[in-house]
Amino acid sequence: MTEAPRRQPTLDEVAERAGVSRSAASRVLNNAPHVSPEKRRAVQRAIRELDYVPHTTARALATRQRGAVALVIAGEAPSIFADPFFARVIVGASAVLEEADLHLMLCLAAGDRSRRRLAELLRARGVDGVMLMAVRENDPVLRLVKETDVPVVFGGRPPGSEPPWYVDVDNVGGARHATEHLLACGRSRVGTICGPPDTQVGRARHRGYREAMILAGLRPVPAERGDFTEPGGVAAMAALLQRQPALDAVFAANDNMAAGALRALRGAGRAVPGDVAVVGFDDLDIARIADPPLTTVRQPIQALGSEMARMLVGLIAGEEPSSLILPTRLVARSST
Amino acid sequence: MTEAPRRQPTLDEVAERAGVSRSAASRVLNNAPHVSPEKRRAVQRAIRELDYVPHTTARALATRQRGAVALVIAGEAPSIFADPFFARVIVGASAVLEEADLHLMLCLAAGDRSRRRLAELLRARGVDGVMLMAVRENDPVLRLVKETDVPVVFGGRPPGSEPPWYVDVDNVGGARHATEHLLACGRSRVGTICGPPDTQVGRARHRGYREAMILAGLRPVPAERGDFTEPGGVAAMAALLQRQPALDAVFAANDNMAAGALRALRGAGRAVPGDVAVVGFDDLDIARIADPPLTTVRQPIQALGSEMARMLVGLIAGEEPSSLILPTRLVARSST
DNA sequence: GAGGGGTTTGGGAGCGCTCCCAAATGGTGG
DNA sequence: CCACCATTTGGGAGCGCTCCCAAACCCCTC
């Protein structure tokens, strides 16, 4: 504000100062061949002296690539993004993107207006690629990304479709392990609090539970449905207890609901893990803080982000990566 | 992938189809005056028929504005972003930005490399403005934003400096209210678990506590220092109890530490709120889930985001907004 | 019917970069 | 010493848009 609004120097000015042509300067900038060592040095000096920084937008226009990718959170309301899950995905992704010198745009694409903006962003080639998460069944965003010709990597699979490129977490396997763990602890009347059935995560974790039960020769208990929130977990656990009073273990499809279950069990006078063992899923902070600390299935959230980014960078570079399912790991604590 | 790689139509093509000049088409696009109604209609029809979308990058180059702003999280490690706080700021900000038709870039500017990239982004005019958060004392990022000529809005104030434009939360007032609430509950031996003193938030909340004590004619108890984490809260509470066994209330500078305090108190056999009342700060999920649910100071996180965005949009438009301190609100639950 | 005001209109010159291509340069072999 | 090939070099034409400006146009008024 104090100084004159001095313009940023342009490549022409660099070239002039170095006594070479703009083309030569451009070659040095992109360290392309066909520049004599002396000229190269001269240009480098000029760049340093003028404190030159290439104008990204101009470069983007000329090369037809933007140097940025978008992370799109579909969901039904922008507030879905408040889930700490996404923040950790971003931490993972941004490290990889930084390596590839790509910037990250964040689009909370809930609602018509933001979807229209996303559509424009894609059509106008505002980004070189997209990472897409929290897509629901028949989400209108699916049409948008189908029409675009920039590469799209999904995080998780939307229910009812198998995108060409995705990174997902082994929800089925994780849920199966969690249930098997309960069985291995000597429990046999294992119930489950499942997630909303219109989410792929909800479905997959429920399936893992059923698989484990059937494999063990037990009859799956009808699931009580939660909404991935703690209060939802309280309500579901209460209902489950009423329906199956003899329950000796519960697999909850995420930690929030497991924490709710803990609270409901305490309210009902059942000891954990004495009377009822509880396993959650996610291994968020709440699992460690819960009382008793929750045994849970840790999913590699940050790795999900970094792998998505890696895959996208590969696609942009013209490679043909293959989709990925990341393993989960059971973390045993005192709730079992 | 199935279709030919048909190029997006350009404005020239629109103009040609509408039988007008490129200039006229451009005017219609930006609905500028000096276009006859018929031509306007013709252009609009051509746009619709060709499914034309203006090329953002070209426009950016011509107008010298990018149509995007950056949210920069300074911090010392990228993982600071995993704090759910930022996610809610983003939810607030992105709604306002969407209204202003600005895109959001996210920069986790910890470490030299990412700071260099940020510097380039600013110098190369990759964004029209910046929202800046989690800046530490003497953070190198301060120099970067001082040198840039795009507007910068701070979220919170970095310790030791008063930025020209900021949105902050009334941490002092909130902490004072929290402490006064404890006093109003009939407590008098009120201790505090404070945050790291090199954060503005830590300092401000500690100050609010001291103000309330002094105003009430009481001697502030020397604070026990935590690090804003739950385990940190456990340790601090244990230390505090040892030092001040007669304590009957604690103000913790955030909910995580308050939850830790709860756990430590339970471990020490003190009833909450019977023996010791506890107040936290933030009103995150954990406050509601804690046992007993925490009385806490709610800060308007989403509003922080939206107000930052609003201020930035104003600055970009050439206005001269004034900085803002958002009020907090005490939420009474069962820990007091 | 010529002169004057205002409003359209379209050509052209950018914005700052990349990249193609033709010309210049330099080193080699016959 | 010249022809010939491989490099290096710089001019110029984009990329797709905005915006200035001069020319064209329209409608009055005198």
TrEMBL record, chains A, B:
PANTHER family associated with the record: HTH-TYPE TRANSCRIPTIONAL REGULATOR GALS (PTHR30146:SF109), LACI-RELATED TRANSCRIPTIONAL REPRESSOR (PTHR30146)
Pfam families: LacI, Peripla_BP_3
Annotated InterPro entries: HTH_LacI, LacI/GalR-like_sensor, Lambda_DNA-bd_dom_sf, Peripla_BP_I
GO molecular function, one term: DNA-binding transcription factor activity
Protein name from the UniProt record: LacI family transcriptional regulator
Regions annotated as coiled coil: none
Alphabetized Gene3D superfamilies for the sequence: 3.40.50.2300, lambda repressor-like DNA-binding domains
HTH lacI-type domain location: 9-63
